[in-house]
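#onboarding

Welcome to the new folks! Below is a worked example of what a typical request in this channel looks like: someone posts a single protein sequence, and someone else replies with the predicted structure as tokens. Don't worry about understanding the tokens yet, we'll cover that in week two.

Example request:
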Amino acid sequence: MDGRADQYSLGVVGYRMITAELPFSGDSVHTIIYKHIYEEPPLASAKRPGIPGSLTVAVSRALAKEPDQRFPTMEEFATAVWPEQPVAAPAKSRAPLGRAPGRRPMRLRRSRARPRHRSHPRNRASRLLPRGAGRGLPR
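Example response:
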């Protein structure tokens, strides 16, 4: 399983955003699963005329049954949805995550907090027992 499964999911979300309906419906979960596996969804433009053709084609391709028929990358999917605004993958940085280039990693300080005494007000046991109870018993 790879990112093309995410494309299918995003295609379902996009279909619903465009048409205000899910691509498949039925009276039971089994019927809906069957339709997801074996039936082609109706075109979004058939449910809502007037949407751009590129959007209909992009969502239909994302909902393709065979993963090989979907877009190779999410960038290509995004560009197909809105061809006027092509999307490019961000350049990969060479710096390790969480650290700026050329800087040493931060040292973590140890906590100096001392353990609370059993009579501390936030200690749950001290609130549950009456005053003076439990003295002389081993911990």
